[in-house]
Write a structure and sequence with these properties.
The protein contains 10 helices and 10 strands. It is an alpha+beta fold. It has 2 domains: about 1-200, Sandwich (Jelly Rolls); about 205-280, Homeodomain-like (Arc Repressor Mutant, subunit A, Orthogonal Bundle), CATH 1.10.10.60. The chain has a 6-stranded antiparallel beta sheet. β1 and β2 form a beta hairpin. The longest helix has about 30 residues, at about 175-205. The radius of gyration is 20 Å and the shape is globular.
């Protein structure tokens, strides 16, 4: 499923993208690029097994895996980077990459989108103006100490497909449509950082705010059916206010969050060697 999702991004690309990729100038990290007004899309293909290939970012860079597999070495740790996942590099960050599966007939492919820090700050300012900063999070801002490595949600996957198509077309509305897509992508990135920050706060003070209490309840009882009445009571909010605050800060509904966390917990249990049946039961799927 992950591989087909990555290929769908390329399938949605214009014939121009596929034509540009068809004549690589080098075998490792062959790049084609397309510029927007305040951003740039690059697609990299690697056609041979290679190790410790360095990559430096001069700005905030979102990386999305399309096909194959990378092993990313970042800040003294290593992780597998797979299709339907993304990773965000901060300005002046260095990583090393292994390409264990790359080959001539099945290249390892990823995309990067370089984002303008000024544009990200502008979006943060707009969010802070539109939504009064909450005690949970403070003001919206980009956290350059949070190197996001995450699975892509279906809406974000669809957004990347649209952006690849937009960057490579020549319509009069191209730049305007790209900026709309980049704004949406930035908001999703900020929401994911906010979610990570909230979860880190849970470890230190699960009673910090009503939203923290509701999140802690969700974490403790992932295996039980969602109880919205209990969650809004813990948050000390009306149902509509709780739903609105939750979706703004975490980028998803409580039900979507519960499902995402169940999948994450089940995957961790399977990785530790637990049986599929037991992992499913303990994660709330049975």
């Amino acid at each position: 499923m992950a591989v087909s999702a990555g290929r769908s991004v390329l399938k949605e690309a214009s014939s121009r993208v596929n034509r540009d990729r068809s004549n690589p100038l080098k075998m490792i990290e062959n790049r084609i690029g397309y510029a927007g007004l305040e951003s740039e899309l690059s697609i990299y293909d690697t056609y041979e097994n290679s190790h410790k290939v360095g990559l430096d970012s001069d700005g905030i860079t979102l990386c999305g895996m399309l096909t194959g597999k990378k092993v990313v070495h970042c800040d003294d740790e290593a992780f597998d980077f797979l299709p339907q996942q993304s990773f965000v590099m901060s300005p002046n960050q260095h990583i090393d990459i292994d390409f264990p599966l790359a080959q001539q007939q099945a290249p390892t492919t990823c995309l990067t989108i370089n984002l303008s820090q000024a544009r990200i700050q502008q979006i943060c300012d707009q969010l802070n103006l539109k939504n009064k900063p909450s005690i949970d999070m403070g003001e919206w801002h980009y956290r350059d100490d949070d190197h996001l490595h995450m699975d892509l949600s279906l809406p974000t996957q669809s957004l990347l497909e649209r952006l690849v198509a937009l960057y490579s077309e020549n319509s009069d509305e191209r730049d305007f449509m790209i900026e709309l897509g980049i704004s949406e992508l930035t908001v999703r990135m900020l929401q994911q950082q906010g979610r990570n920050f909230l979860l880190q706060q849970l470890d230190h003070d699960p009673e910090l705010t009503g939203l923290h209490r509701a999140l802690q309840h969700l974490e403790l009882y992932l295996d039980l059916p969602l109880d919205m009445e209990e969650l809004q009571k813990l948050a000390c909010m009306s149902r509509s206010k709780f739903f609105q605050r939750f979706k703004l800060q975490l980028g998803c509904t409580p039900a979507e969050y519960q499902m995402q966390r169940r999948i994450e917990v089940a995957a961790a249990k399977l990785k530790r060697g637990m049986s599929v049946t037991q992992a499913s039961i303990e994660s709330g799927f049975m």
